[in-house]
Inverse folding.
């Protein structure tokens, strides 16, 4: 089997697996977020944080809850990193410097997982497990929660006609979006956690390591001493991909054999990256009571994603450029275990989903291939985007698309029965303004200041791409790095941290604002003039 | 008569040259109009007014910047860009000025209808003592008298008399209309002229708030408010503008950096060691922001109102026009909208061996005092079908006339013959009761005939007579029939395809209503409708989130007109109805509601189509400008120059010129509105995406290339 055929089969099987997971996983997530029952463990948690699990929140309260939870998370993680040296299992690593701790804390809470450090030489096992991995779960759940809240905004109308959570429960008020704490806990306990455990076990079977060893020194045949690291890798690897986080245990991320031992674990990791984001549209369809709407969204995602994956594979496969042409393939920076094609697919998936884990070095991609990766991120997490953030991103995109299209057919535009008026367009516009503003402002500052230019490895256009990639990755909460750029400097840590923070939470607030705005509206009935939003 | 009419020139008399001459024919734009509007366009350059249009305001700020830059470093290229940037702003203003100009022309003719009439006020009405007052001094509630040849001094209701009135000043229709006291034809408008007879009018307007005043304000667009969709679109455009503003601002450090690391690259007119020149940055910005739709947006709105005015409909707010495009449910009065005028007698059906001619005679006699259209149609039918000459109430001196009232639901006549003969005609139930009250027994034959007519959608009227000394008896049944207007079924089918539900409102019984509804092809009907029922129906539809449109003319329609999202009042209607609705149809044609919906839709579609076009235009501009800017430092980007533009300078200039010219080219489309054919949303979206989306991508490639072929010969550009 030739490389090309193998690459194509790899993608085809991936697509089949995702298609197979779409319905069951989407339906399951729907049942979780729409359920009225509380598990015992959940009740304990609600009592601990002191919330009434049956109370509903307006968009303002929901947004404040998201922000409060995240602020506490950042603070906690920051302190954790600052004191890790004195804690158990620190492996003797020193405390993380303030700017670095800030950057990492923000990075993991915002689901960006930008890493300025090398995991194996900076973070102890305890921080990896109880700090970073916890945020891997929480940030993924926050994303899904916000997406669900936005969808609820569309399904709810005035008290009279609003959809009810389910029978027996009093119908939620006009502009209530659910309860953030309930969503957060449920999504963690019932969706992300079980899936991660499953995935971790499979990864261990595939050869990923899972221990608390500080590592062993071995003597190589050549006589040198090599430090073989250990650690709870598999468990973190699972949620890293599943939650579209991307913060690797090792600096080499998924290119490291302990994280991603074989070609089939590579396949599995790509699958994990994509599975929640691609299944959420099903959940969305169920929530709004029309699976067609879910199919429309997932179709849009698939078209964009397929285009990107094919483009990367073609560009990497045909390897334009001097060096690759000379070598015969664009192998530079690619892990030979996976080969050019599978690496390309991984890169595409990771940038499309805002994950940011890598199994090859994007810096070494062919010029146009690297460009596609950049484009993927600039798409703004919609095809299919991060867990949750992808769904709310594409829904807001749909709102704007529907606005222009609705005007074209001579109707006040509406989406899912809600009119898209000035207020909705305002929130949607702000949503889409945030990220480009951060990327452009960040890049401009980076290119205009001394510290910004100092970090560039390859001067010239390539250096420009490095900075642009860094800010694009941060502001879009992707977290993948183009490498090359030296970002472990105080200004870069602070600036990229800010970009991540604003790039994550401003859009969330705008998305929730939009949800609150449409939730307050009476739904408009469907009629012959408007049923087209279900057909892409 | 102490009547002095000051300044009663030919214009002041409100006598237009003709029905056609006053109206500017819609559609085509004559180039002279562009020229005439230029002063207005230049006046609109004032930043204090222009900032309301954020996109064009940015362009103006950019133009000021390039002007300064051109003064500091004068080059042919910089000056040409500056000129074309200013032209872009002027063209945008021109679009708005032209749209307003059309309204102004209309307002001008309306102003001429405003007279300096001196009104003959009757301060102590019903006493007939008169005093002359200037029309402008009339207060709400004043009573004035107007006679043939005089101009009605203000809006009001006729409270006494009947007159034929020339309303051409308002409606453009030269045929006179009848205005009479009582009923739904009592409203008169200031500025119209009484042609015959004498009427007493109670003024219903406040000074300076007359119908004509409002019309003038509306067509001039003086107090035009942005419609909800326009506001939303403006926000979107502002957001796009900000994104591009940021992008361009970011480009500069990138450019400086790119240049500094590749110092060997030759300087171009676009890029030198200090980065991109300001002129190029501004050009890039102006080309990327949605100038096309930004320039035409307000013109589209004004033109939409204007199109309504062309069809003799006055919209009191732009919001109403937009709502018209959105309506889900049309409430249509059966009479006059779906059916021709009123029910007409179509058959006389005698019972119990009564001769047909005798029935016709009795029917005619009993209907002479019935002034309702139905009553008149009986007289007309008796004449056409039975050759009975129409008699007038005065002819029969020995007769006592019983007029039709809504309470008795009968009309008739008591003839002082021997034996005294009483004839009644009216609703079956009422007449049969009358027969029974007068000792008669309703014949077995009447029931089935009445039911049969009702079932077929007609209205049965029973004719009965009572001779002194004999029991009353039924003579027969008159069959009144509704005649559905031609082509209504097709129009309702169109509506259905557009997703609009049509509901017929009628006072008829459900049986009759169903038959007519089926014949006309409406989706639903409301039978035996009282004003409250209408109101309840509207509220019910609105609760489901639907927008409702209706027409009405009577005072009892006023609450429903006010409640409906689009309420079109007939100009012949009462003042209360006109006050309650948000549109007035000067032609008083209820069918026009359908056209109004189409115009509303067309307005929205035009906006959407041009937005799509504007955004799609950007694609070509990327291909023109990006390679032009960076070709020197990144020769690889030269492959993007797929249009093979001559030089960086010519490419940028061509893009800027195209950007300006496309505004002018689209002005006619913005004013006329895009072509609109009723069809399903999906089909329309496909078509418009193809025309304006794909067209918007392709046209600028051609346009920029063509312009480049010309500008490359300008010295200093190549």
């Amino acid at each position: 089997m030739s490389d090309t055929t193998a690459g194509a089969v790899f993608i085809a099987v991936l697509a089949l697996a995702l298609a197979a997971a779409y319905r069951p996983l989407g339906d399951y997530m729907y049942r979780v977020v729409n359920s009225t029952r509380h598990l015992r463990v959940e009740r304990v948690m609600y009592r601990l944080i002191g919330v009434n699990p049956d109370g509903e929140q307006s968009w303002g309260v929901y947004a404040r809850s998201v922000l409060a939870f995240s602020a506490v998370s950042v603070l906690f993680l920051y302190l954790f990193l600052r004191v890790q040296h004195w804690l158990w299992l620190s492996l003797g690593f020193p405390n993380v410097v303030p700017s670095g701790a800030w950057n990492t804390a923000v990075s993991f809470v915002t689901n960006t997982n930008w890493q300025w450090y090398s995991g194996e030489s900076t973070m102890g096992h305890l921080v990896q497990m109880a700090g970073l991995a916890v945020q891997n779960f929480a940030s993924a759940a926050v994303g899904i929660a916000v997406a669900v809240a936005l969808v609820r905004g569309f399904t709810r109308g005035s008290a009279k006609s609003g959809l009810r959570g389910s029978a027996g429960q009093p119908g939620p008020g006009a502009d209530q979006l659910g309860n953030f704490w309930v969503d957060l806990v449920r999504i963690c306990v019932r969706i992300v956690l079980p899936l991660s455990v499953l995935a971790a076990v499979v990864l261990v079977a595939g050869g990923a390591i899972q221990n608390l060893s500080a590592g062993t020194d071995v003597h190589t045949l050549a006589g040198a001493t090599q430090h073989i690291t250990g650690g709870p890798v598999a468990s973190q690897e699972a949620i890293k991909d599943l939650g579209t986080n991307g913060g690797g245990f090792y600096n080499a991320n998924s290119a490291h054999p302990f994280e991603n031992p074989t070609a089939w674990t590579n396949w599995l990791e790509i699958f994990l990256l994509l599975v929640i984001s691609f299944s959420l549209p099903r959940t969305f369809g169920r929530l709004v009571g029309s699976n067609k709407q879910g199919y429309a969204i997932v179709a849009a995602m698939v078209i964009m994603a397929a285009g990107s994956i094919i483009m990367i594979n073609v560009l990497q496969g045909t390897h334009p450029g001097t060096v690759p042409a000379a070598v015969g393939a664009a192998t530079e920076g690619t892990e030979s275990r996976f080969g050019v094609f599978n690496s390309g697919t991984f890169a595409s998936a990771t940038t499309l989903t805002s994950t940011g884990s890598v199994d090859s070095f994007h810096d070494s991609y062919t010029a146009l291939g690297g460009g596609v990766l950049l484009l993927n991120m600039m798409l703004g997490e919609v095809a299919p985007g991060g867990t949750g953030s992808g769904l709310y991103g594409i829904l807001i995109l749909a709102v704007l698309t529907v606005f222009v299209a609705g005007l074209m057919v001579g109707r006040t535009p509406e989406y899912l029965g809600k009119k898209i008026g000035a207020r909705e367009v305002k929130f949607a516009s702000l949503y889409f303004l945030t990220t480009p503003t951060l990327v452009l402002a960040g890049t401009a500052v980076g290119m205009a200041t001394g510290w910004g230019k100092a970090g560039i490895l390859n001067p010239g256009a390539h250096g420009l791409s490095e900075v642009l990639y860094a800010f694009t990755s941060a502001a879009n909460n992707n977290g993948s790095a183009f490498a090359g750029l030296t970002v472990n400097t105080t200004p870069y840590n602070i600036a990229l941290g800010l970009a991540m923070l604003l790039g994550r939470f401003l859009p969330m607030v705008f998305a929730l604002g939009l949800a609150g705005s449409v939730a307050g509206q009476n739904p408009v009935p469907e009629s012959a003039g408007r049923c087209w939003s279900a057909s892409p | 008569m102490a009547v002095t009419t000051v300044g009663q020139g030919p214009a002041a008399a409100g006598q237009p040259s003709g029905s056609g001459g006053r109206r500017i024919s819609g559609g085509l734009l004559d180039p002279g109009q562009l020229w005439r509007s230029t002063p207005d366009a230049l006046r609109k350059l004032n930043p204090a007014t222009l900032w309301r249009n954020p996109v064009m305001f940015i362009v103006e700020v950019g133009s000021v910047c390039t002007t300064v830059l051109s003064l500091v470093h004068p080059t042919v290229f910089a000056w040409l860009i500056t000129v074309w940037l200013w032209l872009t702003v002027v063209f945008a203003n021109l679009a708005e000025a032209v749209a307003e100009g059309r309204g102004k022309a209309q307002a001008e003719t309306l102003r001429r209808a405003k007279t300096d009439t001196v009104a003959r006020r009757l301060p102590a009405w019903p006493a007939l003592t008169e005093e002359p007052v200037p029309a402008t001094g009339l207060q709400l509630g004043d009573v004035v008298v107007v006679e043939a040849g005089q101009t009605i001094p203000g809006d009001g209701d006729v409270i006494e008399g009947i007159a034929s009135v020339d309303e051409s000043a308002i409606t453009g229709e030269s045929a006179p209309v009848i205005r009479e006291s009582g009923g739904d034809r009592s409203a008169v408008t200031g500025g119209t002229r009484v042609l015959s007879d004498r009427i007493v009018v109670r003024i219903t307007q406040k000074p300076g708030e007359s119908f004509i005043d409002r019309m003038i304000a509306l067509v001039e667009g003086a107090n035009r408010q942005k419609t909800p969709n326009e506001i939303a679109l403006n926000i979107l455009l502002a957001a796009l503008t900000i994104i591009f503003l940021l992008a361009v601002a970011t480009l500069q450090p990138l450019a400086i950096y790119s240049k500094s690391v590749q110092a060997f690259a030759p300087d171009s007119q676009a890029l030198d060691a200090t980065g991109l020149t300001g002129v190029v940055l501004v050009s890039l910005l102006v080309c990327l922001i949605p100038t096309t739709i930004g320039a035409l947006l307000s013109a589209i709105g004004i033109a939409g109102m204007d199109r309504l005015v062309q069809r003799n409909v006055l919209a009191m707010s732009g919001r109403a026009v937009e709502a018209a495009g959105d309506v889900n449910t049309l409430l249509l009065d059966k009479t006059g909208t779906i059916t021709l005028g009123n029910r007409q007698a179509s058959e006389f059906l005698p019972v119990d061996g009564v001769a047909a001619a005798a029935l016709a005679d009795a029917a005619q006699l009993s209907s002479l005092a019935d002034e309702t259209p139905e009553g008149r149609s009986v007289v007309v039918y008796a004449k056409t079908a039975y050759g009975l000459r129409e008699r007038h109430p005065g002819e029969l001196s020995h007769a006592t006339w019983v007029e039709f009232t809504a309470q008795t639901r009968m009309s008739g006549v008591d003839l002082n013959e021997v034996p005294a003969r009483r004839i009644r005609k009216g609703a079956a139930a009422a007449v049969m009761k009358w027969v029974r009250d007068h000792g008669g027994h309703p014949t077995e034959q009447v029931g089935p005939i009445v039911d049969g007519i009702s079932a077929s959608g007609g209205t049965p009227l029973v004719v009965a007579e009572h001779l002194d000394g004999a029991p009353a008896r039924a003579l027969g049944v008159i069959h009144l029939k509704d005649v559905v207007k031609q082509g209504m079924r097709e129009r309702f089918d169109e509506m259905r395809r557009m997703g609009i539900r049509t509901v017929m409102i009628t006072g008829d019984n459900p049986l009759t209503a169903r038959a007519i509804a089926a014949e006309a092809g409406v989706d639903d009907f409301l039978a035996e409708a009282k004003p409250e029922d209408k109101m309840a129906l509207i509220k019910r539809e609105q609760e489901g989130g639907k927008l409702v449109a209706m027409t009405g003319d009577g005072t009892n329609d006023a609450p429903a007109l006010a409640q409906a999202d689009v309420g079109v009042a007939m100009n012949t209607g009462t003042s209360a109805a006109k006050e309650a609705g948000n549109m007035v149809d000067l032609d008083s044609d209820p069918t026009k509601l359908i056209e109004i919906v189409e115009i509303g839709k067309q307005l929205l579609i035009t906006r959407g189509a041009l937005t799509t076009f504007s955004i799609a235009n950007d694609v070509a501009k990327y291909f023109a400008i990006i390679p032009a800017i960076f070709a020197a430092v990144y020769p690889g980007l030269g492959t993007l120059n797929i249009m093979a533009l001559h030089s960086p300078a010519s490419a940028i200039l061509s893009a800027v010129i195209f950007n300006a010219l496309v505004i002018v080219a689209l002005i006619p489309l913005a004013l006329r509105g895009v072509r609109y054919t009723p069809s399903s949303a999906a089909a329309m979206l496909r078509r418009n995406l193809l025309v304006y989306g794909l067209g918007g991508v392709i046209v600028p490639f051609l346009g920029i290339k063509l312009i480049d072929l010309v500008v490359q010969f300008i010295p200093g550009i190549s």
Summary: Chain A touches chain B through 49 residues (CB under 8 Å).
